[in-house]
């Protein structure tokens, strides 16, 4: 029986290496501003600055505008490459509850575990990044063990690069949590993780891994897009706005690997964005 283990890259390895380099360059270019915004976010939330009340020239509204315009070019380019995932071909299905609009996300619980306000969305972001790190780690391990058949070197390079970038994003968000005096998120405290783990265990070829990874990338990109509407602190908007385009570039390259046209017909949707109700965190310990 012919299996997809005999899969061949639809394009060329040279193209995939070029796309991966461009993706990494965009990530490295955005990382300093991302890290600075995370430090600012942690300090502001530690001091209770979560209401965005300062509307002066240096206040949150001006910062929000500067972040969004400053990141607009790379954001437009990357989001223009991201398309909807093909859920029918993957063993992992997003939870029906993970379909918020920006207005619905704004009504999310104000407190989850030890986190409150904007920090709830920060905790969700770390969990999503850790989930992606675990998925790419599993893919790399499966490839090295021969479970996925013959894997072109350029595919391995993309997976390793995406893994490292998700790890960087998780560190940035965790820095904001610890600077705010809250515990960092280690592991994947998400209700959806069991389904993701099960799906990862069932894939036996590169297309299967790519489709699953694509769903996770689209979920992350859409969650960050929603965060730009719902996070109150401008520094938090800055972090989300700087990470979202990189996640969208991951998705675009995965579409390319699957032989699919990576550009969407319209703007990035939010129907697959995660909600904070997916978080599974212990209640805060009374002080």
Task: Please provide a written account of the structure.
This protein has 287 residues and is mainly α. The protein has a single domain, classed as Ferritin, core subunit, four-helix bundle (Ferritin, Up-down Bundle). The chain contains nine helices and two strands, in the order ααααββααααα. Strands 1-2 form a two-stranded antiparallel ribbon. Strand 1 (111-112) and strand 2 (115-116) form a beta hairpin. It is globular, with a radius of gyration of 19 Å. It starts with 12 loop residues before the first helix and ends in a 30-residue tail after the last helix. Mean pLDDT is 78; it is low at 50-91, 93-100 and 102-107.
Record keyword descriptors for this entry.
60% helix; 9 helices; mainly alpha; 287 residues; two-stranded antiparallel sheet; Ferritin
Describe this structure in a few short sentences:
By secondary structure, the protein is mainly alpha-helical. The chain has helices at 13-46, 60-70, 72-79, 102-106, 118-144, 153-179, 193-202, 206-230, 234-257; strands at 111-112, 115-116.
């Amino acid at each position: 029986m012919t299996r997809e283990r005999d899969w061949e890259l639809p394009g060329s390895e040279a193209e995939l290496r070029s796309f991966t380099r461009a993706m990494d360059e965009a990530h490295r270019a955005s990382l300093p501003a991302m890290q600075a915004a995370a430090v600012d976010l942690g300090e502001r939330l530690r001091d209770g600055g979560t209401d965005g009340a300062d509307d002066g020239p240096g206040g949150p509204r001006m910062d929000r505008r500067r972040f969004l315009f400053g990141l607009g070019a790379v954001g437009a380019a990357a989001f223009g490459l991201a398309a909807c995932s093909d859920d029918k071909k993957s063993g992992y299905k997003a939870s029906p509850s993970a379909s918020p609009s920006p207005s619905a996300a704004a009504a999310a619980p104000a407190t989850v575990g030890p986190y409150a306000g904007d920090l709830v969305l920060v905790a969700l972001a770390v969990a999503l990044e850790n989930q992606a790190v675990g998925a790419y780690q599993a893919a790399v391990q499966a490839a090295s063990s021969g479970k996925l058949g013959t894997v072109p070197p350029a595919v391995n390079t993309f997976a390793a690069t995406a893994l490292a970038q998700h790890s960087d994003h998780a560190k940035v968000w965790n820095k904001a949590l610890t600077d705010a005096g809250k515990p960092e998120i280690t592991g994947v405290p998400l209700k959806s993780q069991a389904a993701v783990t099960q799906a990862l265990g069932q894939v036996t070829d590169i297309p299967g891994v790519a489709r699953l990874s694509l769903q996770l990338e689209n979920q992350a990109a859409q969650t960050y897009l929603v965060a730009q509407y719902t996070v109150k602190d401008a520094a938090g908007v800055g972090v989300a706005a700087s990470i979202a385009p990189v996640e969208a570039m991951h998705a675009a390259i995965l579409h390319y690997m699957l032989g699919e046209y990576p550009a969407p017909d319209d703007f990035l949707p939010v129907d697959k964005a995660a909600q904070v109700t997916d978080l599974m965190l212990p209640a805060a310990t009374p002080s």
